[in-house]
TrEMBL record:
One of its GO terms (biological process) is fatty acid elongation. InterPro entries: KR_dom, NAD(P)-bd_dom_sf, SDR_fam. This is 3-oxoacyl-[acyl-carrier-protein] reductase. One of its GO terms (molecular function) is oxidoreductase activity, acting on the CH-OH group of donors, NAD or NADP as acceptor. Residues 9-188 form the Ketoreductase domain. PANTHER family: 3-OXOACYL-[ACYL-CARRIER-PROTEIN] REDUCTASE, CHLOROPLASTIC (PTHR42760:SF40), SHORT-CHAIN DEHYDROGENASES/REDUCTASES FAMILY MEMBER (PTHR42760). Belongs to the short-chain dehydrogenases/reductases (SDR) family. It holds the Pfam family adh_short_C2. Keywords: NADP, Oxidoreductase. Gene3D superfamilies: NAD(P)-binding Rossmann-like Domain.
Length: 249
């Protein structure tokens, strides 16, 4: 029997062509949502949407640069036009430009903040505009445990992910009276293309810090996002959920 935690709802997931974003979009679709696979890489997004449709799910691909105000507003409008509403917004898009502060350029610092933090703010504002009128909705911001503890060589990324926590809490307070909930997830070490590129000894060192003894999978983040997007979390807003296997608890 198919699960239907978000049956009949619509969801936008940014940065959803692959990795964690695609895992979230897939699980939402499996639980009954119509999903907008949004990504700056439209070819990859189109392929992912076609894959979901081939399995009988409702999915479309929309190109979007999350730092472009008009593109993000259009993304919300497209979801509403195609599927009738915007019920779930997952701000997941992100990049890295790692370097120590002495070597990091100002451009790379600003670019990472712009994609993660400004992108999440624009996504929250655009989805919130529609959700306020509907008087319902759930927004999930994908932060990172680095926003809690800071990562060496990631002053830009850690600052952006910490900022997303403040954004989550402030926007949750603004949108609560409209029936709109806003929560954040802080993933830990997750099996993605980025972790696959790590030297084996570095990965092993990081895994040794995880009490549950394994690396996380994109599906671990997707399950948390599904919970926060569904009515199971109907009395939860302004929170930060760590999905880290206990690392940095």
């Amino acid at each position: 029997m198919r699960s239907t935690l978000v049956e009949g709802r619509t969801a936008i997931v940014t940065g959803a062509a692959q990795g964690i974003g695609l895992a979230i979009a897939t699980l939402l679709a499996e639980h009954g949502a119509s999903v907008v696979i949004s990504d700056i890489n439209i070819d990859a997004a189109t392929q992912s949407a076609e894959s979901l449709r081939s399995k009988g799910y409702h999915a479309i691909a929309v190109a979007c640069d999350v730092t472009d105000e008009q593109a993000v507003e259009s993304l919300a409008d497209t979801c509403q036009r195609e599927f009738g509403s915007v019920d779930i917004m997952v701000n997941n898009a992100g990049i890295t430009r790692d370097a120590t502060m002495t070597k990091m350029t100002l451009a790379d610092f600003r670019t990472v903040l712009d994609v993660h933090l400004t992108g999440a703010w624009l996504g929250t504002r655009a989805a919130g505009r529609v959700m306020r009128e509907q008087r319902r909705g759930a927004i999930v911001n994908i932060s990172s445990i680095s926003g809690k503890v800071g990562n060496f060589g990631q002053t830009n990324y850690s600052a952006a992910k910490a900022g997303m926590v403040g954004l989550t809490k402030a926007s949750a307070k603004e949108l609560a009276k409209y029936g709109v909930r806003v929560n954040a997830i802080q993933p830990g070490l997750i099996r993605t293309a980025m972790t696959a590129a790590m030297p084996p000894e570095v990965l092993a060192q990081k895994m040794a810090e995880i009490p549950l003894g394994r690396i996380g999978e994109p599906e671990d983040i997707a399950r948390a996002a599904l919970f926060l997007a569904s009515d199971l979390s109907g009395y939860i807003t302004g929170t930060v959920t760590e999905v880290t296997g206990g690392r940095h608890m």
